Amino acid sequence: MRLRFAPSPTGYLHIGNARTALFNYLLARKHRGKFILRIEDTDVLRSKKEFEKGIIEDLHWLGIDWDEGPEKGGDFGPYRQSERLKIYDAFAKRLLKENKAYHCYCTKEELEQRNKELLARGESPRYDNRCRNISDSQKERYLKEGRKPVIRFKIPERIIEINDLIRGRVSFDTGLMGDFIIIKSDGTPAFNFAVVVDDILMEITTVIRGEDHLSNTPRHIMLFEALKAKIPEFAHMAMTLGPDGSRLSKRHGATSVREHRKIGILPEALFNYLALLGWGTKESQELFTKEELVKEFSLERCKEGAAIFDSAKLTWMNGLYIRKKEPEELVELILPYLKEKNLMHLRGEPVGVRFIKPETTGVINVAPTIDKNYLTKIIVLERERIKKLSEVPDLIEYFLTEEIKFNVKALEILKKPGVKEILTSLRQELTKLIPFSQENLEKIIRDWTKRNNLKTKDVFHPLRVAITGRTIGPGLFELMEVLGKERVIKRLKFIVNSS
Ligand code: GLU
Questions:
Q1: Which of 16, 64, 65, 134 could form a Cys-Cys staple with 240, CB 3.0–4.6 A?
Q2: How far is the CA of 185 from the centre of ligand 1 (A)?
Q3: CA–CA dist 314, 277 (Å, integer)
Q4: In the chain, helix, strand, coil percent, each to 5?
Q5: In this predicted model, what pLDDT tens digit does every residue of 74-125 receive, in sequence order?
Q6: How far apart are the CA of 7 and the centre of ligand 1, in A?
Q7: Ligand 1 atom index nearest CA of 5
């Protein structure tokens, strides 16, 4: 089997296209076939190198690799359509010679006018095939007028049927179509033509693509037939829609792979989630490793109905994948997010005194060395709560900065009568504590609470707020151990001394 993913580099990799790439990839790997990346960049105005680079990067990030493609090479290259223009030209000439195509001299304005007339009569716009049989002298007149011809394919009138691997039998009446353009007036190929020429020469056996291409398929089949080539099998995947049932777009939030990457979705989670968009096993299993997906995936189990992209579900799944990660690996993944927020703990700095906030310290302008040990401990504490990596700075900020923010609720707790006395006395107790370990802390604080005839919640709650600024978070004693004695004492002192 030879399958391909053929993106047009006119934007970053969209979630829907990533899913197309994934389905092709899974099927190719399952059947030990070849997976090919082809860049469809014949639209010079809209195609950008930056997007091609971006798409390649995002596919790699997602964990999709290919056997042949630009840069990678292969026996069927080049794999960028812009480098294949001579090939399309030769194929078009062949069709002209065999009288299966012809030059059309109609101008844009003429076509628009004729389409308007068709619409006025209640018919759908299409080319009326008028240049099929124009005389040589007419052609010359047109050329003298400076008209630049396109090449159109002569549509044979018939019913075309395909046996779509997802949708079953689909038929099309070509009598309702006008002859279509295969080479534009600037000499570049039309999308429909380049796709077919490439699928023939790259010996593609199975075409999996979005349902939005279904209406192009009869044109492709006619071209395959005209070029006497073997027709590949087709599978048209249902579109990816937003939760409101409309086409997935900006208003549904992040729509590109890149945006998901930025907000801290893990590639494994997105890979897994995309596979479930319009596909599933009988058992409705939800979590799959890549290897399992390669093994289980089949087009027969692809659903015909639209796939709903539910970012809440993806986020949930991401949380599960985050929990599976080793804390050390999570730390590495989180560093860029901490850097972005200027939140990094400096190794060797006196604990609790100064943390990275270059603009406020004024002293530390050297590249920060990160105390990964400290970060790892923090991550172990917070891992359960992380759903997206981008949330981590907010979640763990109080470990890394001395500028703790207290919200209204937290301040209310600190202002309760008796709280200051409790914290003053506790601070003295804790100053003596060695080692400052979870077990020790728990014992000492519980004993102290009992001795003073207090309820645990009246002690634990203000204590938590005073040292974290928050009313919720990980286990109090665990987090105190991780914060460390100096920081805890310093924070308590700050609260006790502030009015
Ligand atoms: N270049 C087309 C697109 O990005 C894909 C063409 C195809 O898969 O046949 O939609």
A1: 16
A2: 22
A3: 11
A4: 50, 10, 35
A5: 999 999 999 999 999 999 999 999 999 999 999 999 999 999 999 999 998 9
A6: 6
A7: 8
**The architecture CATH gives domain 408-499:** Orthogonal Bundle (1.10)
- Give me the residue spans of the domains in the chain: 2-78+240-315, 84-237, 331-405, 408-499
CATH class of 84-237: alpha beta
CA-proximal residue: ligand 1, atom 4 (nearest): 7
The ligand 1 atom nearest the CA atom of 40: 1
Tell me the pTM: 0.89
Q: Is the CB of 7 within 6 Å of ligand 1?
A: yes
Verify whether ligand 1 is closer than 6 Å to residue 213 (CB atom): yes
**Residue 263 in contact with residue 254, Cβ under 8 Å?**
yes
The torsion region of residue 26 among left (phi > 0), alpha (psi -120 to 50) and beta comes to alpha
What's the gap between Cα 374 and its chain centre?
31
With a 6 A CB cut-off, is 42 part of the ligand 1 pocket? Answer: no
For residue range 304-361, list pLDDT tens digits in order.
888 999 999 999 999 999 999 999 999 999 988 988 877 765 444 433 333 333 333 3
Active site residues: 250
Q: Looking at domain 2-78+240-315, which of 1.20.140.10, 3.40.50.620, 3.40.50.10420, 3.40.50.300 is its CATH number?
A: 3.40.50.620
Q: How far from each other are the two terminal CA atoms of the chain, in whole angstroms?
A: 74
DSSP E strands in 6-93: the ranges are: 34-37
The reply to whether ligand 1 has any atom less than 6 angstroms from the CB of 40 is yes
SS3 66: coil
Counted residue by residue, the chain has a size of 499
